[in-house]
Amino acid sequence: MKRRTAAALALTVAAGLTLTACGGPKPAPGAGSRAPADAFDPVKVGDGDRTRGGNVDVLMSADFQTLDPGNSNYVQTANVGQLYYRTLTMAKEEAGKPPTIVPDLATDLGKVSEDGLTWTYTLKKGLKFEDGSPITAKDVKYGVERTYARDVYTQAPQELNAALSDDGYKGPYKGGDFKGVETPDDRTVVFRLKQPFAEFPALVSRSNTAPVPRAKDTKLDYTNHPVSTGPYRIKSYDRGRAMTLVRNEHWDPASDPNRSALPDTFTFSLSTAQSTISQQLLADADPTALTLDSAGGLQASDAAKLDEPDVARRTASGLIGCTDVLDLNTETIKDPVVRKAIALAIDRKAIHLQYGGARFGKLTQSYINPDQRGYVTQHTALDPSGQPQPDKARKLLEGRDVPKKLVYGYADATPRYKNMGTSLQQNLKQIGIDLELRAIPAANYYTTLAGENMPDLARSGWCGGADSGSVRTTIDPNLGPSVDGRSFGFSNIPRYHDPEIAKAMYALRGENGTSEELGRKWSTLFDRAMQDYPLVPLIRNVTRSVVGSDIRNAQVGYFFGAIDLSTVSIASASGKG
After folding, report:
1. Local structure of 427: helix, strand or coil
2. Which superkingdom does the taxonomy of this entry point to (predicted)?
3. Contact between residue 469 and residue 440 where contact means Cβ atoms under 8 Å apart
4. How far is residue 169 from each of residues 154, 174, 194, 208, 337, measured CA to CA in Å?
5. Can you give the pLDDT at residue 577?
6. Helix (H, G, I), strand (E, B) or coil at 440
7. CB-facing half-sphere around the CA of 157: CA atoms within 13 A
């Protein structure tokens, strides 16, 4: 899974399950054509270009929350990260489809023991870090070990860790021998699991398995210059302002068929207002520009310009595997009946319009959807059209202990999230609750939601899952228990923990069966949990991202929810480099 950052924000992958509503990628519209406002079919821009050279200018409204692969649970970091780090396997994107897991640093997708408790990977020959030193199995193991230091890396991905046999290991800085990963030689990595996990190749596509040389580990400062194993390395990084990636001369393209690495450089502007990003991209002010901001950085007021022929031919789009929800903090809003009343009072139709309407997504009744394996019908009192139900909400609140005031936190870089708060204020006022709007710096948004300052209400998003076709990898991270089953899980923003449901989910993690069979059990438990209304489903996202006129091979990643940086090229490049 991965959280969406200043956008909205889960692990990845899966074996080629296509969305029933999506056909193959369509070419960008030609001059004079007009894409239907409600079309969800994927559209690529400049597909097939192989021009080498040039610079891609990435415009962003906020800095990355982190560049450290061991401390990242965010899709923006994963998107740029594929340029400078590699993992044992990789979630390969294709517009309009869930990603497919392919080998990356490893020679294959792994070999599993007969009992399902051991997975073995062999590294490709000749792999090197950016300084020319060899990448070994111990570097992969150390990358995993760091993610156990949760006192240091508060946003470290935990899905892989939950599967490994760790004996209470607390990371490399506190000593002890980590037995969850073994390295019998320089090219062999062996994982020991607590329980069988059929989709394990997806877990090692997570950033946990990005190699980290122990001697270069600077803990929290590692985000300033993670040591590259990919086609690019960080040349300069001015936090909150700018970053430049240049070619990594020790990257061997023969070992990496998954990354085209066509541009010579990527430059990132990390503090450009979203309104400015929208204006520059629509006007084609910089022919080599694109953005990773949510909804392509477009403002709702600019949506109609997508119909202009020049803009339409430069717009990549697709229905993505990212869903936005409103999280209700179950530690501060403890009564599930009160949470249900809040859910019923919300005008989800108005929020949909603030997102740009059908151009940018569709209302959803659940975090999971029928395209995912193991889906079973979900039950909710929410109106499918998104209309609020204040009368029903007020009736539910009769005789209850209702909070007089709540706080809604929003990422300050995205105007629609503040506008959403204004709508929520009006909705909750009708049921006797005052709502304070509190801006949170976008670069610290999910860190805040995971910490002591989590507000009462907050929007979040989830993209894909450890297997984008599996319901488990949406359900378990978002409402599942902690690694030991005793509390709420790491990515469980509502902090939801029902002891009975948590016990059942914890046990289900270790059951054998097909994704379909296990998925139906996960879906049933999820339906039970959602009767407590820990969150309110909002929007299944569509991204329409305008790019500069010289950008080619631009596709919207199903998982990234933005332009996939690993595929782009520059048509006007000189061919040098």
Report:
1. helix
2. Bacteria
3. no
4. 16, 9, 14, 15, 39
5. 37
6. strand
7. 32
Task: Please state, in angstroms and as integers, the Cα–Cα distance from residue 17 to each residue in 98, 101, 362, 541, following that order.
Answer: 6, 12, 20, 18
Q: Please report, for the chain, the start and end positions of each structural domain, with discontinuous segments joined by +.
A: 102-222, 321-540
State whether residue 171 is helix, strand or coil: coil
Let me know: does 469 contact 373? Beta carbons within 8 Å. yes
Identical fold for domains 102-222 and 321-540, yes or no, is no
Residue 276's CB is within 10 A of a number of other CB atoms, namely 14
For residues 334 and 330, give the distance between their C-alpha atoms in angstroms, rounded to a whole number. Answer: 5
Strands 315-328, 535-546: pairing kind: antiparallel
E strands present in 260-419? 265-269, 289-291, 315-328, 361-363, 405-411
> Is residue 552 within a helix (H) or strand (E), and if so which, with residue range?
strand 551-552
Distances in Å between the Cα of 31 and the Cα atoms of 28, 312, 318 are 10, 8, 20
Which pair of tokens denotes residue 531? 């009767």
Query: HSE on the CB side for 533, CA within 13 Å?
Result: 21
From 264, 289, 295, select the one nearest 45 (Cα to Cα).
289
pLDDT, one tens digit per residue, over 304-338 is 899 999 999 999 988 777 889 999 999 999 999 99
CB atoms within 10 A of CB 221: 9
Contact 113, 41 (CB under 8 A): no
Hey, which bits of 160-241 come out as E strands? 181-185, 188-192, 232-238
- Strand (E) positions, 231-277? 232-238, 242-247, 265-269
Query: pLDDT per residue over 225-236, tens digit each?
Result: 999 999 999 999
330 or 557: whose pLDDT is higher? Answer: 330
Instruction: For residues 317 and 321, give the distance between their C-alpha atoms in angstroms, rounded to a whole number.
Output: 13
Residue 531's beta-bridge partner residues?
Answer: none
Report the CATH fold assignment for 321-540.
Dipeptide-binding Protein; domain 3 (3.10.105)
Q: How far apart are CA 361 and CA 498, in angstroms?
A: 31
Given phi > 0 = left and psi -120 to 50 = alpha, else beta, which region is 511? beta
CATH number of 102-222: 3.40.190.10
Q: How many residues does the chain have?
A: 577
Q: Could you identify the residue written with the tokens 């959280």?
A: 3
Q: Position 126: which residue type?
A: G
Q: In the structure encoding, which two tokens stand for residue 105, read together? A: 């640093």
Pair 456, 406: CB distance under 8 Å? yes
HSE on the CB side for 223, CA within 13 Å? 18
Contact 448, 345 (CB under 8 A): no
3-class DSSP state of 76 = helix
Three-state secondary structure call for residue 267: strand
Residues 313, 30: contact at Cβ < 8 Å?
yes
Q: How many CB atoms lie within 10 A of CB 563?
A: 27
CA-based nearest residue to 290, from 279, 272, 277: 277
Query: Residue holding tokens 């449901």?
Result: 501
Place of tokens 């359900």: 475
- Distances 342 to 335, 411, 449, 488 between C-alpha atoms, Å: 11, 21, 20, 22
pLDDT tens-digit series, residues 83-134: 999 999 998 988 877 788 999 999 999 999 999 999 999 999 999 999 999 9
Residue 22: the pLDDT is: 32
